[in-house]
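Worked example 4.2. Below are the chains of a multi-component assembly; read each line carefully before continuing.
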Amino acid sequence: MLTARLASHRRTMGAVISLVALAILVPLLLLALPESSALHVPSYLVALFGKYLCFALLAVSLDLVWGYCGILSLGHGAFFALGGYAMGMYLMRQIGTRGSYADPILPDFMVFLNMKALPVTWWGFNHFAYAMLMVLLVPGILAFVFGFLAFRSRVNGVYLSIITQAMTYALLLAFFRNDMGFGGNNGLTDFKDIVGFNVQADATRAVLFSLSALALATALVASQAIVVSKFGKVLVAIRDAESRARFVGYRVENYKLVIFTLSAMMAGIAGALYVPQVGIINPSEFQPTNSIEAVIWVAVGGRGTLVGAALGAVLVNFGKTYLTGAFPSAWLFALGALFIVVTIFMPKGILGLLDPRRRRAPPRKDAPASVEAAIDANVPVDR
Amino acid sequence: MIDRPALTSSLLYLDNVAVAFDGYKALRGLSLVLRPGEMRAIIGPNGAGKTTMMDVITGKTKPDSGTVYFAGSHDLTKLDEPAIAELGIGRKFQKPTVFESHTVEDNILLALKAPRGPFATLFGKPAVGQLEKIETILRTTRLTDHRARMAADLSHGQKQWLEIGMLLAQDPKLLLVDEPVAGMTDAETVQTADLLREIARDHSVVVVEHDMTFVRDLGVTVTVLHEGSVLAEGPLDVVSAEPRVIEVYLGR
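Applying the procedure described above to all two chains together yields the following structure tokens:
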């Protein structure tokens, strides 16, 4: 136990230090070095890895609910996409008269659709602060309402997974419709500026990459703090034995609601960082397969390990980029095979292979004395 | 109604409780009164309604009719599981149910009487004297040497004790214990009887059990359930001499 807990702290610290180092180094390598230098990082790679970091953040948010509380959400991509749309709407409003129709208020697609005025849903999105608030609030409120209804009715297990899937599918269909006013099939694209900086510029890309790395680092630190707190222990207790947790006196639905809402907001931030780096957001982001892929990232990296989820997201997406380039038809087969192999042979994912704990091993003779055991179990000593 | 003397002086009061699942009558007119500080054994053949009775008391199942009062004034039929747990009713399941991926010590910590809300556990400070309480419970349940082990790694008997320890940590007024010695070795059974008698000194306890030797060891009033209502009540020797009880247990 001592080693397992320490290992988890060390893992998080290691990941955070690496991410901060990346956040500083990558912009330097991109901006300070001449393109002829061997160490120069091309800007497309920066955007690509920035995208991976956003996926990693989504994976961490999913791991919080699935890995620690046993809520297998197959619709987390929806929260990611909603965060992305909120950012996309801000970016659309920044285009201004530079659009093809040069309308100072209405984005191109609205002019094209003969819309006369800006829909209410778009009001305020020209302000960055308002848009960022919506990045948090829209996924958060949806998760809160959805979770309130589902958890209070004690919808569990596979039934919950199915309705999360239905939720993202419903949003997919809704966002496809032109009269929803979110750009329909084409989504939002042709972004120009973000807070006054050109989104295509190397410097902006470098900053977005750094922000993604820092957001991931912050999420890891916050999530680690949550899971080692008593709150986190209750989450694991709910995952292991929900009815026992109820009879001990914990209101399970409230715990699920808090972590589900927090997780959705985290996914929203990931989506918001993702959109300016890829330059587009469209309804395909709501596709159920996206959410299922996110589950695979977490499973591959190691469920309930946080850092593992992030690692899984980066590795699987790296593999995806490579395979879809080299063998386009092989990717889905590879993904399916990966999921089966991980489920059967590595139930705790990549990090499970590194886990120093051997759960079924007999207790060691040199078991920690009581004080150490108390520290180990994170039980504060009274003063 | 709640002013009646029988209600105010009893800790648990069930009157004419009926529960049906899809037409199957699990409880039909069950009545039971438990005095404060009393320990009671409930026996009965399979399907007698023992577990359903526990479900009704702890809020898992809502009765179709009848009254259930706790400590004189609390109508348990109107409350859910966490609320009833907060009132001071702890429950041990038939199958040992502990938090497997937590250590023995964390299991008790989670059960320890403390604010239960998500924000209290996220930001709250640990209670004063918490460590001493955990120590005491570990000692009572003979788990001091296993405190740092994962609950999943405990033996069956140890898991049962850990679960009883978690009940103690909740510091309930009433403990409901469902088949505590099922699957235990003889030595463990004897130890468990000791443990329960120790607990009964300052808690009210209801034990559901099949094991007659164990019930004899406890030496308390026995209630015999049959087909969802009370068949007989009294000391084990008196009850087991009743022709109706013999008939139910041994068949015609």
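Take a moment to check your reading of the output against the notes. The radius of gyration of chain B is 18 Å. Residues 1-7 of chain B have pLDDT under 50 and may be disordered.
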